[in-house]
C-alpha cells in the first residue's frame, strides 16, 4: 500500500497545481531546484533551527542582555512585510528590503543586522534572503511552540535591490494609522489584531530601544532592560492573550499597561471591543489563528513573485551527489541519501539506476547514520538518517538514480565537474599573509565524442557579494572559459581558474555554486565547492 501513497504524494509535489517548476529565475535556477534546496535546509538539524534552540536563547552574544534570538526572527517578519502595497503596484512584502532599512527609526533595535547576518551564512543562488526569513519564522515557532508545530514554507521569493517604502506602525501611532498600514499590506482589522497578539507572545520591549516605554531595570542579568509581553516570553502560547483578557500576570505587557501614549496593543486589541482577541483564548484557537496569519505574512510578496506550493519534504531525497572519474578513467557516482520518518527507517536505503532499458537491479546503500538530534532540536520531521553510497557506474547508459522507488534525480554522464580535482587557493598580500580564499581551480569532464577539436567549455561560479547599505549579500556570477588539459578514458578534461571578489576583503558568508557548460545544450550538475581543499604551496596551476 505504501508505494501508491508515495507515488501520489510525489506526483502532487511534481504537479504543484500546474505551476511551472522548471521555470527559471534571473539566475537560471528552477523552482524545483529551490524546493529541493529548501528540503535539504530544513532536513538538516544543524542549520538555522539550532540557532533558536532552546527558544529563549540569545545566540548573538551573552545571555544577560535580555535579547532572544527567536523573538528577533519573528519581529523581522512584521517589519519587512508590513510595508507591502497590495492594491497599488503590488510591491513590497517579504522581500528582505528590511536589510536596507535598518537605520530607520521605525526599525530601531539590533534585530535587523543581527538576524540578517545570521541568515547570510546560508545565502546561496538557490535560497533568497527573503526565503530564509521565512525559514527563520518556521524554525522559531517550531522551537517555541510546545507542540513543535511548523509553518509550511514556500520558496521563490525575490530579494529587493534597495529600500522599500517606510511606514511600519509604532507604539505611539494611533489606531487609524495602524489599521491603514495593515490594510495597505492586505490585512483586515481583525487580521491586524491577530498578527499583533501572535507576534507579541514572544520576547518583549527593550529599555535600550524604547526608554520612554520601559524603565531601566538596572539588572545585570537583563542589561538591555527587556520587559516581556507576557509571563512566558520564551513559549509561543496564548498566555499573553489571557493575561490581557483577565487582567492577570503582566496584563498584556508594556504596550497595554505602559504610558498612555504608547499603549498601541491595547488600542489595537480593543478596537473591535476585544472580539477578535477573545476568540484566541483557547490554546488551539490561538495556534490555528496564529499559524494562519503568520503564513499570510510570509506569503505577502511582490505581485511578480511566483511562490511554490507549500513544501512537505519528501520522505527520501538526495542530500548531495556527484559524478567523478577515478584514475582508470571510469565514471563514479557517490553521494548521500536522506530519509526521514516519524516511524522507523530501514538500516540501509535501496536505490537503482535508470537506463534506456529500464532500471538496474536494486542496490543497497551503506548503513544509515541517524542524525543526533541535539538538545531536542524540534526538527519536526521525525528521525532523519543519512545513507552514503559510492558506485563505479560502468554503464554509459545510466541517466538517473531512483531512491526507495519514490525519488528520482537525473545523472548526466556527458559533462560533469570533477569534484576530486577541485581546489581553492589562498591569496597572499604583499606581506605574504594569507588574505582570503577567492580563487578556485575547477576541472570538468566531457565525452570526447561531444568535444571536437576547438570546443571551449565555460565554468560559471555563483557567489555572494557585499552590497552597499544592506548586510544582506547579493548573488553575482563569474563565467570563465575552460581550456583542454588532458584526456582520460573516453573523456576530455578541461580546466579553469576562477577568481572572485577583490582579493582583499573576505566575501560575505554563504554557499558558492559551480556549473560547467558546453554550448547551449550541455550543462553539468551544479556543485558546491565549499569543501574543496586548499592547494599546497599556494600554486593553483600545479594542484
Ligand atoms: C502596530 C503594530 C505593532 C507595534 C506598534 C509593535 C511594537 C513593538 C515594540 C515597540 C516592540 C519592542 C521592540 C524592542 O524593544 O526590541 C515590539 C517587539 C516585538 N514585536 Fe511588535 N509591534 C507591532 C506588531 C507586531 C507584529 C504584527 C508582530 C508579528 C510578527 C510583532 C512581533 C514582535 C516581536 C516578536 C517582538 C519581540 C522582539 C524582541 O523581544 O526582541 N509585532 N513590537
Ligand atoms: C478589552 O479588554 C481590556 C483588557 O481586559 C479592557 O481593559 C477593555 O475595557 C476591554 N474593552 C472593551 C471595549 O471591551
Ligand atoms: C546594518 O548594516 C548595514 C550594512 O553594513 C549598515 O549600512 C547599517 O548602518 C547597519 N545598521 C545598524 C543599525 O547598525
From TrEMBL:
Signal peptide (UniProt feature, chain positions): 1-18
GO molecular function, one term: metal ion binding
Keywords: Heme, Iron, Metal-binding, Oxidoreductase, Peroxidase, Signal
Family assignment from sequence similarity: Belongs to the peroxidase family.
UniProt-recorded name of the protein: Peroxidase
Keyword DNA repair annotated: no
Natural source organism: Venustampulla echinocandica
EC code: 1.11.1.-
Tagged with keyword Ligase: no
Short name of any one Pfam family annotated for the protein: peroxidase
All copies of domain Plant heme peroxidase family profile, residue ranges: 127-250
GO BP field: cellular response to oxidative stress; hydrogen peroxide catabolic process; response to reactive oxygen species
